Amino acid sequence: GAVGIAVGMATNIPPHNLSELIDATITLIDEPDVGPSRLLEHVKGPDFPTGGIILGTAGIKQAYLTGRGNVTVRARCEIEVDDKGRESIAVSEIPYQVNKTRLIERIAELVREKKIEGISDVQDYSDRRGMRIWIQIKKDAAAQIVLNKLYKMSDLQTSFSVNMIAIVNGRPEILTLKRCLELFIDHRRTVVTRRCRFDLQKAIERREIVEGLGVAIDAIDRIIELIRTSRDPEQAKLRLCSEPLHGFAGFLERCGRPAEEVAKAKAGPYRLSERQAKAILDMRLQRLTGLEQEKIEGEYKELSALISELEAILTDPAKLMAVIR
């Protein structure tokens, strides 16, 4: 939900049940032309955190179909009878945004001012297990009549005015339920696209490093010689970048890459980038063990699969929507 006031405008969107909204969103993804009535099969109405009972569905339908409507919310009350036959009213849930202390004070005021007769006592027995406001009814009064007066004169019954205004592309707009969900799907499309692009860039950068390590391990004797005979790390990096290496095709074969990719790698020597050369200079000697070589090849396979998957998502709208779904 959201409540806000701006210049000459106010929004009042009630909270909802997340599972219901997701079911409606999935229905809209699967059937973009679905009618509002189908969405209302999933979204039964607002889901207020303080509970209470919504009276009727006309206000709900009007709010979802037009963006504006009034929802009447009533406290959940039970009439209890004790062993002596005396009635009392037990309130276990109150309407949304009603202050419990203020509600009890208001009931006491109504009794003092004799606007409601028939109440002998009001107690708050709420604890961590839940809410319980106990209203004792006088012997000569009828609990149901007293309760009806309380609904009318106190906040045991309130009206929630739904006003679904939101800023869409920089402009205020009154939103129906379907329009809300369509905009949410558009938002998710943007977010997932950006996330995939970010992950793709990171995976490409990491694969470049892993590729360089894989090639370096195949030509490790020459790599060590170049590093040992360099006067400082900067010269070592420059010499590594200019050295032609020939182990790339074998590395790709071990990683299970396609034949055309391997053939392309055989066409000429492999030259390291600056980032790869720096990664080799930072490499620990334990990475030269057989197990570490297998790990590098395994990571290269995983990164290549991830890159292919992310590229497919970014180029195929159906796959992008499947991720969102």
Question: Mind sketching the topology for me?
Answer:
Layout: E1 2-6, E2 9-13, H1 18-30, H2 36-42, E3 53-55, H3 58-66, E4 68-74, E5 76-81, E6 87-93, H4 100-112, E7 119-124, E8 133-137, H5 143-153, E9 157-163, E10 165-168, E11 171-174, H6 177-218, H7 220-228, H8 233-242, H9 248-254, H10 259-266, H11 274-281, H12 290-315, H13 317-324
Helix pairs in contact: 1-2, 1-6, 6-11, 6-12, 6-13, 7-8, 8-11, 9-10, 12-13
How would you describe the overall organization of this protein?
With 325 residues, the protein is of the alpha+beta class. The chain is elongated and about 105 Å long. The two termini are 22 Å apart. Helix content is 53%, strand content 18%. It is built from 13 helices and 11 strands. The strands form 4 sheets. It has a 4-stranded antiparallel β-sheet, covered by helices on one side. It has a 3-stranded antiparallel β-sheet with strand order 3-4-9. Helix 6 packs across helix 13, helix 7 runs antiparallel to helix 8 and helix 9 runs antiparallel to helix 10. The mean pLDDT is 92.
Give the percentage of residues in beta strands.
15-25%
Count every helix, treating DSSP H or I runs of 4 or more residues as helices. 13
The major pleated sheet works out as:
4 strands, antiparallel
Kindly report the spatial arrangement of strands forming the biggest sheet: 5-6-8-7
**Rg calculated over all Cα atoms:** 34 Å
Mean pLDDT: 92
Rough shape? elongated
Rounded to the nearest angstrom, the distance between the terminal CA atoms is 22 Å
Based on helices, strands and strand pairing, what is the structural class? Answer: alpha+beta
